[in-house]
């Protein structure tokens, strides 16, 4: 019975119409047996071939003889396998005769059979016949169908010998294709030979054993390699292409076919991409073995045609999930009709059916590698995924049925033969150590346990998760183009097992039914296909997430993608693959993507809420999965606030979320996910973005809560004390791990619809972060800084949201946690102290400064805790030790701070506590200075330095009304914390007294006293003389004894005095007493002396011997003293930062064009709203704070009444108005001040006019030189009186060694404001200030962040403060069509509470950008060892002024000077 005819006649499944529909395939029936096959010619073959196989000269001299011998060889190649020697000799003769087509080579040993002269003269004439005859070597024999394939009873020796013959033929075919000059007929015969060999091995469904495993892959390898060479040298005809496709469709149940197909098509893809996109496109990595698979000189047209045809060679890969289609071949039909029923037949059937899932998975991996190549992604990552999937596709050892021992399906790597078929390599030599060709696309999964990497791919130390994925190339094709090419296969594969059509196999009419499969087996088969389906879903996600900013995706593609992703997210076996590759799906302005929000939230809950995901991860790296889930979480946290009133969108026909809005649905779920994820996260690298997600979630919920509270009806009361209190009432740290369960449980019990949900979430987030900070994160710098920054942000919510009504006890507990953290860090052993540890402590002090508020400082216990940590930071220990120990007095303690940086941070906190201020209006910086007083006509001032760190400038002229002179003094106090002014007046009468009165009114008694008699005063009797009177001589006796010549004068004076006293006594008895009146106020007094005396600076003789005096007088007449004061005033008391804001239109790459956008009004309204929210507009002239450049900062000169008001701007209001010339956007708090500047292009022109240049060294250091930086109207920097300019030179090296060498240069980092004055000693060593370059860039097209010319943009960002090249940071913001803002933060550590990829509501964007800029600046300062805080720099300047301009006065001379005019 002709099974093929039976199948073709009765089958209803017809060949699809395509490019080969009009062509017939070529038969692969072999070379036939000839005449000898009809009459029996075994003995003839043995006799003839034995002689021909010898190396003796050939006896064949005519063409007829050669033709006759070829008939003999034709029959000999069809002999049974038991006639191995005859087969071997026939193969040797054929190989030797075909070698005549090859170029001459060195003689081989042993010598090959001789070539007949006729054949040597015309090898092409006989090559066709020989190649056709070699078909018989692979054609199945009657009653002996290639025993080495189906059975092992012939013995391993015979199997190996048979395999060697096949290898030899394949080696010859490869050599002919490489080196021989073949014609079209020879190429056709060679390709048909390889097709026939592959069909004999691969078409039957029976399993392969032993050497057949190796031979199976070898045949396919040679077939595809020779086919590529044929496409280059003699392109195959349509009939051959159709034959190849039909045969490959019949071989799809063999795993090596999928591997070789993917390998060859990927190599062609790499060459195709090079032809299509050129050298700028990311090169697809090709292993060394396959580098020459595609000839270098192959034309682009041949590559394109070959690539498309080979890509479609195996048909639709999804057919592998349909056994009824795979088994619809004559070979399967013959096998089912002839296979014996029983255990062996059943096992064989289950083997090939079970292997389809494994092959489908490999085919999807290959297809995914093709898609990644077009997207510009590297395909090397498939090696890791494939290696991980080798031991099983699902957790718990559940692998693909039939593929548990993958050595039975695909030969293991250690048993594969090398690709090269050269006989020069010994057979027992192992292959060279190189990446297998199949590893390129991750299709080599079977690997013995001895070669599996020791580090599992899902471990924390895996390098896969530590490396950042490179961005996609902007040259990548559009999403629609990729879906046009691969979409049909991907969409169908992504829905495998989800539709009824795939659950019920359909078979063609007239085809014998396949073996019956039970329902359980069918379900198991569908489950086993989930690995390949997961790959298809991940590929779909990568394609859809490759959408560019202004690209439109066709609606049918979006709909099919959403449908596939929804089913994938609801399946635990595939949800992990979707989350892994869909991290950016909500950031791309995809139409209708909100329909996936509920399913993604559910998947995130399963991944992040526990340490181990509740999904089947399989080969997916769990750390990469968590990273992708966190990225998705960052893109979703703004949805409950932004879409709070939008109904949850659903698919047609679904009604799961009827009546629910996205705000109601997602608010509580996302909050719980954030809290749970932070609670269980064990990786420090992933904790940083998680903290950002938690902060953004809390901030958005706080906004919603504030709106709900404000919208509550008047008179309604909200009782929520029990809602936001924590379970535990203890304020100390908790060290047990089990206590963390309370945080997630507390959030789970909250009602998201409650108006106090935001307040409760703030409290719980505070507790959670504090707990993890002190218990788990205190050893990691990155996480500690991020956690402390989050607590600083939460502190503002505690203090700035009065509608929350959060009790003071909650703030007190948080402060105690942070104080305990500082105590724990400072109390660690000395060997544990490092720069990172001290940076954490400094950040903790900065965090405490954010929590300071009046209610907190009013609490005695909290104030005591704050002062304890201040004492710990300044002195290195606490006065109050352990319980029971006596306290240590200040004089008994030895000052040993943990580090100078910690001491400086503690001093800053102490000053903030004493000031109890946190205003944002810059009010702590006084505007009064010497120039202001001089402009009003006042005289000189006295200048003193008190205690070595405070500079006092005293003005002794009364400033009040001259008609009522008062003893008035004006004191300008300059210290490390700023410049302050006091005005003190000593009044002789209370302020309630009438002005202008000459004297105070005499008090009038209320009642008249009764008259009294004058008292009678009787004189006392004279005392009697005694011996004591004679012991003291009289004055007369003493003077006469001394014989003093001045004695008469003294006696005369005494007599005169006695006369005057007697005259007064006589007049008192007769004159009435006059009324006593106060004297007239004096107008000449030394108020400076009074002030210094009242404050204890004039302690005459009270100073300790050898100690420095508390008060040092300064000589203000020395040249350069005014410049030194201005230099001091130009150093602010708060950390100053300049942030430059720019706007980039779509496609702009030139810095000049980008900066010019600020002068136009055609900018995005969202950008304008962001700009207005960053700060308050202030005018440069008269501003008391930082203005963005040292030339114009702290120059607070008020406008005099005689001065005209500033004219209104003539040009229209554009962002360039804040370019730093007239206005800037200013923001400040108690510790920082930020100037937001929008460069307009004038910076470069002014730099040319003023010789202002900036030079960056190769190693990243920066040299700023400003010459002639004068400003009209008497700038702080115009200190030379007119024509003199200002120059400052600062050079900073990146390396610590370079920084220490720079310490010896006095002029480095010094402000040379007066050239005649000598340089300040020591200021260059200590007065160091660094600031990073921070840019906020608004992008119309988010893809433009890859091409920003940052090196050119920083030329417009000169601030006069030294900076380092590697500390330039860019915060890119791009508006999303729905109204949200997408943020791009460069660097691995993020920007504090703002992580890369976060989506923010426009209302929160300015505040988050400010916080990110402050975090980046603080981080740069922490990384600089020589950085000094502002108050330390001011203190050093004061000390330098005291050392250079002091008067060498003794204590009497100092007191005498106070009585003289200054």
Strand content is: 5-15%
Helix content range: 40-55%
Cα end-to-end separation:
130 Å
Which sequence of strands runs across the widest sheet? Answer: 7-8-9-6-14-15-16-17
* Count of DSSP-assigned helices: 54
User: Oligomeric state of the chains?
Assistant: single chain
Q: Report the structural category.
A: alpha+beta
Low-confidence segments: 1-17, 145-155, 381-467, 500-518, 709-741, 917-923, 1249-1327
* Largest beta-sheet details: 8 strands, mixed
Nearest-integer average pLDDT: 75
How many β-strands, per DSSP? 17
Rg, rounded, reads 47 Å
User: Judging from the principal axes of the Cα atoms, what is the shape?
Assistant: elongated
Explain the layout of strands and helices.
Blueprint: H1 3-10, H2 34-39, H3 42-52, H4 63-76, H5 84-98, H6 117-121, H7 123-133, H8 147-150, H9 156-179, H10 184-202, H11 211-233, H12 238-250, H13 255-277, H14 300-311, H15 323-326, H16 330-338, H17 343-375, H18 381-388, H19 463-466, H20 479-494, H21 500-503, H22 519-528, H23 530-544, H24 555-569, H25 575-581, H26 597-608, H27 622-636, H28 639-642, H29 662-680, H30 684-710, H31 721-724, H32 741-749, H33 757-775, H34 781-800, H35 808-826, H36 835-851, H37 854-857, H38 860-875, H39 900-915, H40 930-935, E1 942-946, E2 950-955, E3 968-975, E4 978-985, H41 1027-1031, H42 1035-1042, H43 1047-1068, H44 1087-1094, E5 1111-1113, H45 1121-1129, E6 1135-1144, H46 1151-1156, H47 1165-1174, E7 1176-1179, E8 1223-1228, E9 1232-1237, H48 1242-1249, E10 1253-1256, E11 1262-1267, E12 1287-1292, H49 1296-1302, E13 1310-1312, H50 1323-1326, E14 1333-1339, H51 1350-1353, E15 1368-1375, E16 1381-1385, E17 1399-1400, H52 1405-1422, H53 1430-1445, H54 1451-1457
Parallel strand pairs: 6-9, 6-14, 14-15
Antiparallel strand pairs: 1-2, 1-5, 2-3, 3-4, 7-8, 8-9, 10-11, 11-12, 12-13, 15-16, 16-17
Helix pairs in contact: 3-4, 3-5, 5-9, 7-10, 9-11, 10-11, 10-12, 11-13, 13-14, 13-17, 17-20, 17-23, 20-23, 20-24, 23-24, 23-25, 25-27, 26-27, 26-29, 27-30, 29-30, 29-32, 29-33, 30-33, 30-34, 33-34, 33-35, 34-36, 35-36, 35-38, 36-39, 38-39, 45-53, 47-52
């Amino acid at each position: 019975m002709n099974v093929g005819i039976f199948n073709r006649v009765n089958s209803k499944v017809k060949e699809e119409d395509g490019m080969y529909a009009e062509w017939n395939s070529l038969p692969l029936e072999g070379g036939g047996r000839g005449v000898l096959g009809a009459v029996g010619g075994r003995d003839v073959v043995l006799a003839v071939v034995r002689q021909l196989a010898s190396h003796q000269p050939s006896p064949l001299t005519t063409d007829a003889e050669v033709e006759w011998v070829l008939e003999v060889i034709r029959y000999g190649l069809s002999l049974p396998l038991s006639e191995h020697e005859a087969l071997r000799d026939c193969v040797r003769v054929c190989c030797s005769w075909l070698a005549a087509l090859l170029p001459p080579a060195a003689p081989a040993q042993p010598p090959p059979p001789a070539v007949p002269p006729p054949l040597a003269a015309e090898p092409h004439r006989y090559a066709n016949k020989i190649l056709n005859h070699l078909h018989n070597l692979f054609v199945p024999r009657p009653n002996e169908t290639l025993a080495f394939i189906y059975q092992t009873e012939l013995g391993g020796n015979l199997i190996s010998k048979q395999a060697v013959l096949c290898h030899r033929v394949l080696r010859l075919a490869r050599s002919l294709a490489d080196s021989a000059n073949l014609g079209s007929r020879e190429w056709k015969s060679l390709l048909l030979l390889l097709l026939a060999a592959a069909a004999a091995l691969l078409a039957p469904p029976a399993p392969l054993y032993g050497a057949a495993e190796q031979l199976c892959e070898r045949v396919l390898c040679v077939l595809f390699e020779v086919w590529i060479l044929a496409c280059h040298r003699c392109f195959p005809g349509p009939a051959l292409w159709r034959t190849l496709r039909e045969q490959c469709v019949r071989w799809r149940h063999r795993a090596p076919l999928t591997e070789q197909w993917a390998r060859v098509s990927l190599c062609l893809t790499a060459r195709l991409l090079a032809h299509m996109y050129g050298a700028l496109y990311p090169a697809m990595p090709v292993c060394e073995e396959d580098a020459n698979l595609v000839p270098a000189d192959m034309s682009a047209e041949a590559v394109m045609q070959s690539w498309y045809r080979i890509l479609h060679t195996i048909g639709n890969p999804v057919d592998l999930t349909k056994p009824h289609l795979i088994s619809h071949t004559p070979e399967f039909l013959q096998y089912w009709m002839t296979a014996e029923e029983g255990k062996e037949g059943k096992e064989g059937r289950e083997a090939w059916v079970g292997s389809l899932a494994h092959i489908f998975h490999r085919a999807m991996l290959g297809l995914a590698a093709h898609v990644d190549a077009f997207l510009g992604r590297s395909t090397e990552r498939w090696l890791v995924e494939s290696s991980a999937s080798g031991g099983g596709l699902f957790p718990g050892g559940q692998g693909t049925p039939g593929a548990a021992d993958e050595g039975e399906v695909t030969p293991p790597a250690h048993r594969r033969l090398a690709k090269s078929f050269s006989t020069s390599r010994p057979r027992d030599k192992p292959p060279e150590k190189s990446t297998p060709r199949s590893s390129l696309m991750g299709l080599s999964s079977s690997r013995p346990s001895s070669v599996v990497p020791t580090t599992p791919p899902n471990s924390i130390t895996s390098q896969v998760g530590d490396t950042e994925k490179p961005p996609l190339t902007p040259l990548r094709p559009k999403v629609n183009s990729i879906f046009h090419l691969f979409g049909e296969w991907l969409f169908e594969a992504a829905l495998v097992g989800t539709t009824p059509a795939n659950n019920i196999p359909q078979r063609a009419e007239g085809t014998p039914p396949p073996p019956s499969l039970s329902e359980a087996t069918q379900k198991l088969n569908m489950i086993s296909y989930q690995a390949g389906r997961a790959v298809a879903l991940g590929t779909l996600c990568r394609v859809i997430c490759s959408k560019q900013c202004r690209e439109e995706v066709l609606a049918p593609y979006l709909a099919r993608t959403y449908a596939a992703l929804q089913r994938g997210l609801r399946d635990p076996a595939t949800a992990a693959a979707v989350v892994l590759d869909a991290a950016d799906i909500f950031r791309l302005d995809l139409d209708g993507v909100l329909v996936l929000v509920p399913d993604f939230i559910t998947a995130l809950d399963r991944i992040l809420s526990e340490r181990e995901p509740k999904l089947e991860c399989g080969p997916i790296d769990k750390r990469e999965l968590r990273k992708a889930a966190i990225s998705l979480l960052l893109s979703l946290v703004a949805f409950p606030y932004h879409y709070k009133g939008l109904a949850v969108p659903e698919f047609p026909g679904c009604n799961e979320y009827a009546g629910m809005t996205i705000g109601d649905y997602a608010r509580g779920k996302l909050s719980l996910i954030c809290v749970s994820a932070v609670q269980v996260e064990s990786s420090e690298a992933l904790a940083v973005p998680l903290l950002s997600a938690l902060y953004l979630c809390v901030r958005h919920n706080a906004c919603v809560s504030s709106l709900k509270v404000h919208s509550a009806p008047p008179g309604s009361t909200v009782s929520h004390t029990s809602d936001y209190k924590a379970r535990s009432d203890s304020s100390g740290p908790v060290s047990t791990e089990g206590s963390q369960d309370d945080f997630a449980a507390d959030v789970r019990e909250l009602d998201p619809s409650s108006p106090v949900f935001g307040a409760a979430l703030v409290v719980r987030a505070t507790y959670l972060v504090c707990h993890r900070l002190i218990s788990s994160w205190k050893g990691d710098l990155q996480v500690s800084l991020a956690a402390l920054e989050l607590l600083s942000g939460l502190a503002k919510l505690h203090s700035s949201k009065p509608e929350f009504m959060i009790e003071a006890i909650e703030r007190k507990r948080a402060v105690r946690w942070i104080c305990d953290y500082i105590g724990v860090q400072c109390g660690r052993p000395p060997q544990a102290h490092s720069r990172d540890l001290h940076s954490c402590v400094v950040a903790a002090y900065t965090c405490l400064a954010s929590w300071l508020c009046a209610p907190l400082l009013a609490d005695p216990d909290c104030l005591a805790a704050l002062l304890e940590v201040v004492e710990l930071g300044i002195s290195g220990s606490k006065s109050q030790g352990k319980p029971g120990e006596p306290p240590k007095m200040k004089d008994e303690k030895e000052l040993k701070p943990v580090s100078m940086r910690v001491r400086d941070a503690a001093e800053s906190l102490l000053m903030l506590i004493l000031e109890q201020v946190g205003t944002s209006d810059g009010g702590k910086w006084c505007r009064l200075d010497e120039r202001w007083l001089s402009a009003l006509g006042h005289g000189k001032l006295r200048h003193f330095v008190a205690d070595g760190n405070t500079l006092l400038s005293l003005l002794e002229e009364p400033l009040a009304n001259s008609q009522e002179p008062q003893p008035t003094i004006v004191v300008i106090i300059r210290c490390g914390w700023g410049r302050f002014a006091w005005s003190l007046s000593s009044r002789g009468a209370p302020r309630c007294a009438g002005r202008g009165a000459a004297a105070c009114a005499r008090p009038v008694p209320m009642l008249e006293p009764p008259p009294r008699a004058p008292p009678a005063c009787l004189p006392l009797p004279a005392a009697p003389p005694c011996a004591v009177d004679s012991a003291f001589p009289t004055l007369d006796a003493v003077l006469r004894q001394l014989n003093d010549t001045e004695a008469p004068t003294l006696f005369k004076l005494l007599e005169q005095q006695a006369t005057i006293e007697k005259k007064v006594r006589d007049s008192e008895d007769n004159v009435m007493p006059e009324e006593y009146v106060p004297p007239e106020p004096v107008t000449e007094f030394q108020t400076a002396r009074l002030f210094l005396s009242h404050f204890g600076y004039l302690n005459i003789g009270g100073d300790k011997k050898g100690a420095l005096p508390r008060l040092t007088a300064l000589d203000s007449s020395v040249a350069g003293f005014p410049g030194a004061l201005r230099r001091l005033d130009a150093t602010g008391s708060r950390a100053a930062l300049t942030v430059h804001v720019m706007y980039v239109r779509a496609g702009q790459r030139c810095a000049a064009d980008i900066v010019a956008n600020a002068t136009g009004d055609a900018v995005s309204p969202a950008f304008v709203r962001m700009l207005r929210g960053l700060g308050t507009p202030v005018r440069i002239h008269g501003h008391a704070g930082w203005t963005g450049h040292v030339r114009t900062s702290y120059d607070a000169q008020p406008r005099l009444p005689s001065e005209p008001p500033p004219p209104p701007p003539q040009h229209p209001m554009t962002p360039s108005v804040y370019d730093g010339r007239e206005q800037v956007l200013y923001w400040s708090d108690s510790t920082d001040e930020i100037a937001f500047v929008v460069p307009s292009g004038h910076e470069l022109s002014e730099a040319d006019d003023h010789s202002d240049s900036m030079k960056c060294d190769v190693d990243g250091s920066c040299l700023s030189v400003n010459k002639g930086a004068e400003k009209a109207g008497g700038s702080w920097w115009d200190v030379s009186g007119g024509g003199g300019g200002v120059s400052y030179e600062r050079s900073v090296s990146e390396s610590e060694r370079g920084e220490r060498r720079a310490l010896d240069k006095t002029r480095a980092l010094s402000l040379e404001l007066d050239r005649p004055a000598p340089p300040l000693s020591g200021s260059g060593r200590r007065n160091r200030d660094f600031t990073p370059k921070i840019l906020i860039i608004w992008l119309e097209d988010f893809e433009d962040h890859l091409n920003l010319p940052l090196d050119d943009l920083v030329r417009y960002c000169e601030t006069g403060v030294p900076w380092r090249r590697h500390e330039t940071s860019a915060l890119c913001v791009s508006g999303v069509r729905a109204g949200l803002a997408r943020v791009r933060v460069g660097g691995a550590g993020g920007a504090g509470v703002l992580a890369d990829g976060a989506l923010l509501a426009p209302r929160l964007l300015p505040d988050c950008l400010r916080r990110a800029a402050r975090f980046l600046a603080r981080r740069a300062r922490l990384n600089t060892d020589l950085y000094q805080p502002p108050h330390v720099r001011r203190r050093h300047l004061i000390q330098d002024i005291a050392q250079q301009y002091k008067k060498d006065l003794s204590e009497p001379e100092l007191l005498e000077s106070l009585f003289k005019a200054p």
